[in-house]
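Let's do one together. I've listed all components of the complex below, 644 residues spread over two lines.
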Amino acid sequence: MSARRVLAVMRKCLNPRNPYLFLALLGPFLYVALFQVIFGLFREEPRVAVYEEGEEVVARLLEETEAVEVVPAGSRGEVEKAVEERRADLGVILGADVRERLAAGERAAVSVYIAGESLAKSRAIALAALAGALRSLTPQTPPLAFELVKLGEEKALTLMEMFLPFFAILIIILGAYLLPASFLVSEKEARTLTALLVTPATLAEVLVAFGLVGMIISLAMGAIVLALTVGLDQPLLLSAIFILGSVLGAEWGLLLGMLSRDQATLMAYMKGLNLFLIAPALFVIFPSWPQWIARVFPVYYIANPVFRVCVYGEGWREVWWQVLALGGFAALFFLPLLALAARSQTSADSRLLGAAA
Amino acid sequence: MPREKAIEAENIAYSYGDTQAVDHISFHVEEGEILGFLGPNGAGKTTTLKMLVGLLTPQEGRISVLGKDIVKEKGEIQARIGVCFEEKSLYEEMSAAANLKFFAALFGVRDLDVAALLERVGLSDARKDRVANYSKGMKQRLMVARALVGRPRVLFLDEPTDGLDPVSSEAIREVILEEKGKGVSVFLTTHDMMEADKLSDRVVFLSEGRIAACDTPENLKHRYGKRVLKVRYHRDGELAEEELHLEDADTGRRVQEIIATRRVLDMHTEEATLEDIFILLTGRGLA
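Okay, and this is what the predicted structure of the assembly comes out as:
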């Protein structure tokens, strides 16, 4: 195996005219951006415009609830305008004496504007949050005491966190899996693979170069996307998961590339297989689904540890067996790749090396 | 003193399922020799070439190139050969220069003069153009140039001028002869008998995977040619034509008689072409 020849093939692969390279480099960003835009438009926190004469106490209390988003307003007119323009579901105007009257246990008048097009759910949440904030300013103890029992996951997940398993798999699919497969099939279609194999370059060197390009791009995209979304708290552990995941992805990509005669066949295979690649992410996103089903899929051992490490801060102690399983799958799929590569060296099967062979 | 053998194939065979593509053939190519490997489509030329360059492993027999076994020492052999396939196999989104530089990197050739190489095949003006924009002839010339990147000792050319314009064909023939002049051995598959006749030191006739004949074009013509003298002359006001066999004892006397009439229009020997001999030996044409 010559590092010089592997590097030469890798350099050739980084051709900006390759649409798959473009997709692998920009795809994860586009998906994350699209996701943020779509779910940003449908965000669920009700917005409350607050104008308080004097010190801003109620606005701060509302913000602390994290149940509503406070829209700052500098005057009564701004509150009315925010509600009229649907920038706020609720508008609240608090006079200078409201806090003093509440603190003294007296009745106080608060002006509230409700946007006519706001959702009933948003109004209920916003009014409850406002009532809670105002009650905290009174000296009376509430007549009822609530005991809170949390059901399900302790942590309230953001949408980006929930969909992190999907992004982790997507990064592996677009980089480590799709790129080596497309490189190989492109070489077959152009019959250049045959031309490569009558030079000192061996099939193993060509396959390693294709796989490495996909893996490096997957790792880079993984690091960037995680850093931009949920952070990179445990880089070594995450690197290990992504390296093993991209090795597995590259093996699948190369296997598929060797078995595909052309781009149309490759795309047909991929359409059929993508469900099996994406499905495990759904099981991680919806933990109430029977998890044993997901554990059958090798990709689960990429999606789940990334999710547990990034979202719940788990470490080697908790996810070691999943990383080990991932490594096991990577080793397992190396065997058919090796067998197919060995066969293609001596076989006249045109699928393996292209029609020219 | 006999020259070294650049290629030696001994009793090689290859079959695709029940179809015997190459049927236990033996031949050799000497150093600095051009061997024309002739046969119609499906005769087994390309399968033989693939075995010689290490793309297919012979199911039977043995091949050595430059004294090394193609199965055991494929890497060493491939570092010293150049191959030009019949079908286009270029990186079309890259320029001609980038294609050659990439292959030079694979061969570990650092001092390749890309401009000079492209000049040799008449592509220096288009060296920065994308190969996708090249004509068929330009692509074929670039394929030949690519085969020379590793400074090969043996060249394998599969139908290098098939379907090309006369200018491109001539450019490629010149390059082949230049390489021969440098001592490079050439294995040339073709079904163009004229080309084989012009370029080859020896030719192999391949039919249905078997060798029907192997010799120099001159020897084949001498052995299998008609060797007749064709004479056209006026006799009693009409055009007459006679074919006189050169081996016949009476031919000399008869030629003198015809010349004495002073009415000879033309007179020439009629040589058999390689195609005639191929048909004679195999019972089929080359198309």
